[in-house]
Amino acid sequence: MNQMLEDLKKELKYEKTNSCVQCGYCLPVCPTYMTMGKETHSPRGRINLVKMVGEGRITDLSVLEEPMNLCLGCRACETACPTGVEYGTILEAARAAITRRKKFSFPVKTLRNTIFKKVFPSKSKLNLLTDGLWLYQKTGLQKVAQKTGITRALPFNLGQFEAITPTVTSPSERRNRFKRIPAKGEKKYTVAFFTGCIMDAMFQRINDLSIALLSHVGCEVLIVENETCCGALHAHSGEMDEAKVLAKKNIAAFEKEDVEFIINNAGGCGAMLHEYDHLLADEPEWHERAKEFVRKSKDISQILVACGGVPMNKELPGRVTYQRSCHLTNVQKVTKEPVQLIESIPGIDFIEMKDKDMCCGSAGIYNIVNYDASMEILDEKMKNVKDTHATTIITTNPGCLLQMKLGIEREKMGKEARALHLVEYLAEAAGIV
């Protein structure tokens, strides 16, 4: 019995819970505590539950399931914590322990296996799904479905998200991208661009604009073969073994290229890439390779600033606010560069919103699997957005971008406001689009 408990402690990363002194500094920065008002839905409350399981005072791990599932994983608590608690590590260990013991029903188990093991890691399967979406949009079926109200019958409130789905690029555009894009003018860096899975399928336009901007400021850009999903959604869903498999595939693919940096444009993906060394800490050979990968991994805003900024040739008058990606802010610690780039755009009136670092409620697929909780958080965020009277909301993560578009729809602000990825806004100001 004692050995079983010791094994469970190791599995749950119990030793890391001892850093938490239950001071409560995390409470005012935790979105779920602020909206739900329950101690079990705060960082210190969740840590205390893990601690009690590790000490054998709670023997049923299902007690952890709801508190852990309702956590956004925004990790704002880590930024506020005075004792350096590694909350993200504790959260993912708890989710993994729950997933290993949970008996999923037949359709749920099959769906999880299909999505996590067959779809996200496969560019070809994602391309096929995106081809279907392109046909749906191009043939007018989308307009018919929306007009007849069929989309309202979709499960998990997917009809809400269908209305804000970006227009995807054609199959030929997605399959005919150059693998090496030269720098314009003097070459400053040679970089590899991480295209991602969902990012490249649903937001290829943003990826293409990212590559164009990098070339515009003096980077030679490589697209790496055999790149795969970053593994973030797997890790957040407790599928840690699969996340490790994907991390190893990406490390092996990118270390073949002689590049100075590995660039991403999605806060969530970037955070996962940024922590590959932590993910593979128990495997010495891969840990060393992961550390080199992490050293090179950068958000696009960092490289654009390092190259001297983006040359602008167009004024964009209007008031702008910035919805920060939690994982870009709290995990990658990239805070200054996006603001610096926004403020460099001629003609804008930049204004920060209240509680600018608070999560918007997107959090990967949190807004799908925990729709009601997500919308409560989004509604609070939109109050602060509306107070800025901004006509443009800038984001640095695809999930945040869709969540802000959904917020604009919910608040009926479509005529006076728009949401854009930072890359889209910079490309507009630079005359690239």
From TrEMBL:
The cofactors required by this protein are: [4Fe-4S] cluster
Catalytic activity annotation: glycolate + A = glyoxylate + AH2; (R)-lactate + A = pyruvate + AH2
Q: Which UniProt keywords apply?
A: 4Fe-4S, Electron transport, Iron, Iron-sulfur, Metal-binding, Repeat, Transport
Q: What is its EC number?
A: 1.1.99.14
SUPFAM superfamilies xref list:
4Fe-4S ferredoxins (SSF54862)
Quote the cofactor binding remark: Binds 2 [4Fe-4S] clusters.
Q: What InterPro entries does the annotation carry? A: 4Fe4S_Fe-S-bd (IPR017896), 4Fe4S_Fe_S_CS (IPR017900), Cys_rich_dom (IPR004017), Glc_ox_4Fe-4S (IPR012257), Helical_ferredxn (IPR009051)
Domain of life per record:
Bacteria
* 4Fe-4S ferredoxin-type domain location: 10-39, 61-85
Q: What class of enzyme is it?
A: oxidoreductase
| Family annotation (Pfam families) | CCG (PF02754), Fer4_8 (PF13183)
- What role does this protein play? Component of a complex that catalyzes the oxidation of glycolate to glyoxylate.
Please identify the protein, giving its name as recorded: Glycolate oxidase iron-sulfur subunit
What's the source species for this entry? Ammoniphilus resinae
